[in-house]
Amino acid sequence: MQNTSLFKGNLTTIVLQLLDREGMMYGYEITQKVKEETNGSLEIKEGALYPVLHKLEAQGFLQVEARKVDNRIRKYYKITEAGNEERISQLDALRDYLETMQQLLIPKPI
């Protein structure tokens, strides 16, 4: 994807949707799943992901569980009920936006 600003503007929606579908995941796992599912066309940088994860946690949209893995603490993120409601709201807003853009950009037959 050439224009990363469109992608960054939807990072919250992507994270919530992915966690809803996949269940509990840790940060690096999220970055790799997005890369895999988009055949490498979208890459989430950790510098962009972790502020979003922390914000979603502070808003009560994610629950965090720390686990010790190979003598390291790894944080796993899981969507909460409030996060699911936000996910649905974000998806609805994104659908409305896409419909509006289609109206503006795709010419109607005369």
From TrEMBL:
Pfam families: PadR. It comes from the Bacteria. InterPro entries: Tscrpt_reg_PadR_N, WH-like_DNA-bd_sf, WH_DNA-bd_sf. Residues 15-86 form the Transcription regulator PadR N-terminal domain. This is PadR family transcriptional regulator. It comes from Nonlabens ponticola.
